[in-house]
Amino acid sequence: MRGADRQTGTMFSYLSPEALVPMDHPLRAIRPLVNAALDRLSGDFDKIYSRVGRDSIPPEKLLRALLLQAFFGVRSERQLMEQITYNMMFRWFVGLSMDAPCGT
Fold it and tell me: What pTM did the predictor assign?
């Protein structure tokens, strides 16, 4: 079953990862383009995911993470997960809050 691409809220954090990304960083210009493309693909994702079962990791988050891997030359999925765990810019681009679990 396809998981929803919900933005996770923060419980104890007073900052969002977005507040830590510089306003002039190139990913700020890229992210709206990526989100628009993923919005157009949403219907296709709905067709290929089951309506029953456990929610998956949202395909939008997976595709954003893979883009980061390509943009920054991260050599493996393990290193990508490590980067997403502690790199606030990566967390923001993927759509995770500061305290959201990564890779589980």
Answer: 0.82
Of 77, 55, 26, nearest to 85 by C-alpha is 77
SS3 of residue 85 by DSSP: helix
Residue among 103, 55, 101 nearest 77 (CA) = 103
Q: Pull the structure tokens for residue 103.
A: 């890779």
Tens of pLDDT, residue by residue, the chain (104 residues): 788 887 766 556 677 788 889 999 999 999 999 999 999 999 999 999 988 999 888 999 999 999 999 999 999 999 999 999 999 999 999 999 888 888 65
Distances (CA, A) of 74 to 13, 18, 65: 28, 21, 10
Side chain identity, residue 22: P
Question: How far is the C-alpha of 95 from the C-alpha of 42, rounded, in Å?
Answer: 16
